[in-house]
Write a structure and sequence with these properties.
7% helix; homoheptamer; 51% strand; 10 strands; Co-chaperonin GroES (chains A, B, C, D, E, F, G); Chaprnonin_Cpn10_CS (chains A, B, C, D, E, F, G); 1 helix; 10 Kd Chaperonin, Protein Cpn10, Chain O; six-stranded antiparallel β-sheet; two-stranded antiparallel sheet; Chaperonin_GroES (chains A, B, C, D, E, F, G); cytoplasm (chains A, B, C, D, E, F, G)
Chain lengths: 94, 94, 94, 94, 94, 94, 94
């Protein structure tokens, strides 16, 4: 069973604190909006979404930074995921 | 008698708790916005809606996750349904 | 004398409670937004409305569900009507 | 001397209560937004207004229903008029 | 020295009370938004303003009604002017 | 070293009070929004800004009126400047 | 490991106070919105972002002024960065 996001949405899995430390990303305490690190597990088809052309730049496996206050959380077969729009992804960590 | 949604709207039927358990989706308590699981029972024609092209990606029978606070509830021949825009559907469960 | 709605507007006549019962639609008490059942009595020409192309999907005689808080109420030759935009019509009952 | 409205605006003259009675329109007290009956006395040229194409559907002499809270009131040579956008006209009474 | 407005802006000079009386326009006290009478003294070039095509319909010398709460006031060589967008001009008095 | 504004932004230098007096512009105390007089010192390239075509109408040396509450102030090599969008410039003084 | 921003986003590194002094930019205390000086360290691909064409005008190494209240702060391998949209960059210092 899979989660297939619609339109310009992606499904991501938040990386745990120990994974965060290994990746070298530390979020400072005083920032206005703290981005979160996550891994992309599913990518929507993009195309015309709400009348605007959206091309998907992300692929499954990408490590990404996303805006903390965006998206919807779900728990699926024991793991928590977040469904959000590609535009809420700030950057890819390579 | 049928409900035929207009434009980019779909009619969905919320899945009951026991169905939720079988599908493996569990919604965690602390999430900001809890998506809901439902089955699509009718799909609008799409086309030009409010001057923007909307292509319908959903079909009758799809299991979907939708945003809890969207749409209008109705009771029809003893069953509750929700009418909402396709854009309020987050993902399809396959 | 007739009411001819402009642009993408339609004129509808709310169905009475007894008619509601016959149609099988019951509106549950706890819903966030209760749609209302009505019959379409006049349909605007559509076309370019506010610079966007709107095609009218409704016709006179359609039974429709509409969003309760939309439109303007008028009383015309003893009967109450509501004038609202087609986009405020959720679905057609067939 | 004349009032020539710009763009998609029209100038209308509110119909008096006795005229309202003759026309058969009665506005119920409990409505959320009470439309008003008026006669069109001047129509703007339409065309491209704010970058969007607006075609004027109204003509001088039309009896119209308009949204009460829209437009600007002026008094001109002893008569009160309202200047408002065509989109604030709900319907034509024929 | 001149004031040359940019884009879709116009410069207008408010007409004094005595001029208002001569023109026959009286603004009633209870109106929601009182338009003001003024004379156009400078007109911007129009063209593409904020990505939308705006054609200037006004010319220097036009007597206009404008929305009271729009625009910026300046005093220039002893005379007060208002700089506002053409869309804030309601109508031309001819 | 220079400040090169991006997109449709311009850099302006506010004119001092004595310069204001010489230019004949006096700002009345009771106005809702007082425009300010300034000189343009740098002009962005314009072009497609946020998907909309913006053509720059201003050039270095223009005396302009701008809206007081717009833009960002900086101090550069001892002089204060304001960076703002061309659309916040009301008019050119010639 | 690198941070690759998506769409029209850029990654910048704030310049320290001593660097600010050397560059000659001083931010006055009473300004409404204080722009900040920073160096660009990564630039997104631009292209169609949210259905609008965005061309990237910035390149790695540019010294820029940016709006203080925009973007997301991250700490990466011991250095703080800010991820923000190109449109939040006010100007380039050359």
């Amino acid at each position: 069973m899979n989660i297939r996001p619609l339109g310009d949405r992606v499904v991501i899995k938040r990386l745990e604190a120990e994974e965060m430390t290994k990746s070298g990303i530390v979020l400072p305490g005083a920032s206005k909006e703290k981005p979160q690190e996550a891994e992309v597990v599913a990518v929507g088809p993009g195309g015309f979404v709400d009348g605007k052309e959206v091309k998907m730049e992300l692929k499954v496996g990408d490590k990404v930074l996303f805006s903390k206050y965006s998206g919807s959380e779900i728990k699926f077969e024991g793991t928590e995921y977040i469904i959000l729009r590609q535009d809420d992804i700030l950057a890819v960590i390579e």
